[in-house]
Predict the structure.
Amino acid sequence: MAEAALERRVDTLEEYMKELSYQSLRTEMELARLSKEMREFKDEMRAFKDEMGEFKDEMRTFKDESVQERRHMNKQWGDLANRLGTLVEDIVAPNLPRIAETLFGCTNPDLFAIRIRRRFDGASREYDALLACGGVLLVNETKSRLLDSHVPATLEKLAEIPNVFPEYAERRCIGLLATLYPDPSVVRLATRHGLLVMGMGDETMQILNPEALTHSA
């Protein structure tokens, strides 16, 4: 009886050891499978990261090319308008309301006109563009090429404004010189005398020296 019981216990122990060995083998296989899947996942993520890097590089190249193309088109458009003598109408004037809103919060101008002529002191005065809004009168002079001599000439025209346009005499009169590609030295000169300068940016015309407003106050 004791011998038979011992044999049963040994058999049970052997079965238990076999099951334990099987479970251990299955666990090792499962861990190996998981390890393989993790390596494959890491490889896929690495490949995805490389693809995203290539995509970002392509998008950056596309963006740079688009900016260059836009600059080229803007330059061609501006040069054409300059040659045709329509720089004011085609490029400068359409940007004045936006600039007035940005600088002075003007959303509804009282006056916005181009190529204005008025008689004064026995002679004709001509202004490329005027924009009146609130307490401001923006006086634009557009040049195909901006020179140092245009700064004092514009200041003289601004000094006459209260007499030429008495209806705007109480408004702050601000001069704005516009050209496609102004020389930095002229921009600095205009700034010292409180004149804004507008030139071609990447997208459209933009004010190059907003700090000039502190000189014209």
